[in-house]
Amino acid sequence: MATIATLTAAGVLGAFLWTFAEYLLHRFAMHALHGKGIMSREHLEHHVTSAWNFDVNHILSWTGMLLVGFGGLAPLAAWASSWSVGIAVAVGWAAGYFHYEIRHALAHRRGPTSRYTGWVAQNHFHHHFGHPMANHGVSVPWWDLVFGTSERPSKVRVPRRLALPWMLGDDGELLPAHADRYVLVGSVAPTERTAQLDRARAFASLAPVD
Ligand SMILES: [Zn+2]
Ligand SMILES: [Zn+2]
């Protein structure tokens, strides 16, 4: 029977493996494929408007990632060690994955409430509005640092038409609390031209125009 220390280490390994998958999937399976395949298409649709809305595809992703963990990683680790270690790796993987899912959704839907969530938001919205081929890690920074895709501008330029609701006050201007990290650019009214451009540029993994 594996010790608590071994099971904890196996769980941490599973979560760490997830962070690598988060980077690889986001960079290659989503952005580099330019809309080929459901994973890429759904993600680039998310880039068109930068809104996070729940839909049925999330249930597909959740099922897929649980299958990878409990149907793939667990038996693999069980073969190398024991079933208790295998399950611990899968639990760590699933915890890492759902942590990422929750952090990503909250970054879009709610203003940051801590140093960490402030970093998640700024890092991720530079990915959305500044350079979609940078900052592929959403929940952790280290793989972008390892692969040289980390960017940290002092302020993220946010096109007004794509600004997140939590960034704005009732007057539609940037809340002073966010002024040290974000700056609004462009005009507020989306036009047919900007809508077409936003779609084309999202699917080319290019930043939206001002
Ligand atoms: Zn996003
Ligand atoms: Zn992306």
Number of domain modules: 1
The percentage of residues in β strands lies in under 5%
What is the 3D form?
Answer: elongated
Hetero ligands = zinc ion
What are the secondary-structure elements, in order, as H or E? HHHHHHEEH
Structural class per helix/strand content? Answer: mainly alpha
Helical region count? 7
Largest sheet: 2 strands, parallel
Runs in which pLDDT lies below 50 for 5 or more consecutive residues are none
Please bin the fraction of helical residues: 55-70%
Number of strands: 2
Calculate the mean pLDDT score and round it: 96
Largest sheet strand order: 1-2
Radius of gyration: 19 Å
Q: What's the N-to-C terminus distance?
A: 59 Å
Task: Describe, in plain words, how this protein is organized in 3D.
The protein has helices spanning 4-32, 38-49, 56-80, 83-109, 115-129, 142-147, 192-203; strands at residues 156-159, 182-185. It starts with a helix and ends in a 7-residue tail after the last helix. The chain is elongated. The chain is mostly helical. A two-stranded parallel ribbon has the order 1-2. The chain binds zinc ion (2 copies). One zinc ion is lined by residues 46, 104, 108, 124, 128. Residues 46, 104, 108, 124, 128 line the site of one zinc ion.
